[in-house]
Design goal:
5 helices, alpha+beta, 38% helix, 160 residues
């Protein structure tokens, strides 16, 4: 008969036998979720938060005055596109995130209700997609978009 050898299962047994053993399973025997580390870049959270905020009816745009102006210029350039992260700032830790949003709302929308809906949508989207706990979503309403703003801007141009 052959004699079975035992593998140390605790640090104490490891010291007594003179071998080094890791506690728990490692390598192929470990669960896939525990084999490595995942990091999420700030830009990823900014993109998710920006998209989630724009999904809410009543949000006209994100960003402050200068950021919106630069975004409009970028949008006029052939091949240029608007940035999804404009008006979004985040701080991302290992397990938590804090988000700041700058909004332009449509005229006639109840701002307090809109802010609550944006907050809920952003938290749900970020937490679902990243697994991070969103500790706060701060919302700054920078402007109100009036229905005749776009029509007036088009009529002021020299050529049509």
């Amino acid at each position: 008969m052959t004699e079975a050898t035992s593998v140390p299962t605790t640090k104490q047994e490891s010291r007594e036998s003179g071998t080094t053993a890791l506690q728990g399973e490692t390598g192929a025997g470990a669960a896939p979720a525990s084999r490595g580390r995942t990091t999420i870049a700030d830009g990823v959270v900014e993109t998710i938060a920006g998209m989630a905020a724009r999904e809410v009816p009543g949000v006209h745009a994100l960003g402050g005055g200068f950021a919106r102006t630069m975004g409009a210029v970028r949008g006029m350039v052939p091949g240029g596109r608007t940035s999804v992260t404009r008006g979004v700032k985040v701080e991302v830790g290992e397990i938590q995130a804090a988000i700041d949003l700058a909004l332009v709302v449509e005229y006639g929308v109840a701002i307090a209700d809109l802010a609550a809906e944006v907050r809920e949508n952003v938290i749900a989207g970020v937490e679902r997609m990243t697994g991070l706990e969103v500790v706060e979503v701060n919302i700054a309403v920078n402007d109100v978009h009036l229905p005749d703003d776009e029509e007036q801007g088009r009529a002021d141009g020299r050529v049509q």
